[in-house]
Amino acid sequence: MIASLSGTVEAVSLDRTVIDVGGVGYLVHATPATLAGLRVGERVRLATSLVVREDSMTIYGFGDDDERHVFETVQSVSGVGPRLALAMLAVHTPDGLRRAVASEDLAALVRVPGIGRKGAQRITLELGDRLGVPAQAEPGPSSSEVGTDQRDQVVDALVGLGWTTKVADETVSTVLRQADAEIVEEADVAGALRAALRILGAQRG
């Protein structure tokens, strides 16, 4: 089990990064929010989970141990594999998922690509309280708390995920106007990106 990696960021792409650890480059799959915080040439520590299959060994990386715990726990639900678990964390923070499961908020869960209503019902039923109790929601950021550079990072990340610049820009503007702590949970790029993905997921659904 590879529990964490500490090294230098060699490359960052849409859904993965390469971390140089002692001269060995490890390919790590991660959420857009995690990848948005990485910079080529800088050192980083990622909590990781190694998924072994008959024909592959895949490393998934997370900003902290709590994200990894949630990633591994949700895979105990039938039909939820590592890719879907990662998609859940791309749209929701760990506490966002805890709140959705605890309150049986199916609408929040179906915003994740690949989860329908029946799947959301199964997730809430099978997970129960295994994710733990969500922390108190913190106030979300105002537009003044997310600077121009950070805003551009979120727009660029959404464009990289396939949305047009116009749609990405309008969605980020919506996020920054939104004062509801349930929509924006962190005053940073990762929080704004997750919020934008939630909005776009709801529009698609």
UniProtKB/TrEMBL annotation:
Keywords: ATP-binding, Cytoplasm, DNA damage, DNA recombination, DNA repair, DNA-binding, Helicase, Hydrolase, Nucleotide-binding
Record localization: Cytoplasm
Any one GO BP annotation for this protein: DNA recombination
GO molecular-function terms, A-Z: ATP binding; four-way junction DNA binding; four-way junction helicase activity
Entry remark concerning the domains of this protein: Has three domains with a flexible linker between the domains II and III and assumes an 'L' shape. Domain III is highly mobile and contacts RuvB.
Record SMART domains: HhH1 (SM00278)
Subunit structure: Homotetramer. Forms an RuvA(8)-RuvB(12)-Holliday junction (HJ) complex. HJ DNA is sandwiched between 2 RuvA tetramers; dsDNA enters through RuvA and exits via RuvB. An RuvB hexamer assembles on each DNA strand where it exits the tetramer. Each RuvB hexamer is contacted by two RuvA subunits (via domain III) on 2 adjacent RuvB subunits; this complex drives branch migration. In the full resolvosome a probable DNA-RuvA(4)-RuvB(12)-RuvC(2) complex forms which resolves the HJ.
Chief localization: cytoplasm
Alphabetical list of SUPFAM superfamilies matching this protein: DNA helicase RuvA subunit, C-terminal domain, Nucleic acid-binding proteins, RuvA domain 2-like
Free-text function comment from the UniProt entry: The RuvA-RuvB-RuvC complex processes Holliday junction (HJ) DNA during genetic recombination and DNA repair, while the RuvA-RuvB complex plays an important role in the rescue of blocked DNA replication forks via replication fork reversal (RFR). RuvA specifically binds to HJ cruciform DNA, conferring on it an open structure. The RuvB hexamer acts as an ATP-dependent pump, pulling dsDNA into and through the RuvAB complex. HJ branch migration allows RuvC to scan DNA until it finds its consensus sequence, where it cleaves and resolves the cruciform DNA.
Encoding gene per record: ruvA
Superkingdom to which the source organism belongs: Bacteria
GO annotations of cellular component type: cytoplasm; Holliday junction helicase complex; Holliday junction resolvase complex
Family to which this protein belongs: Belongs to the RuvA family.
Ranges where the Helix-hairpin-helix DNA-binding motif class domain occurs: 72-91, 107-126
HAMAP family noted in UniProt: DNA_HJ_migration_RuvA (MF_00031)
UniProt region (Domain III), positions on chain: 146-205
Protein's recorded name: Holliday junction branch migration complex subunit RuvA
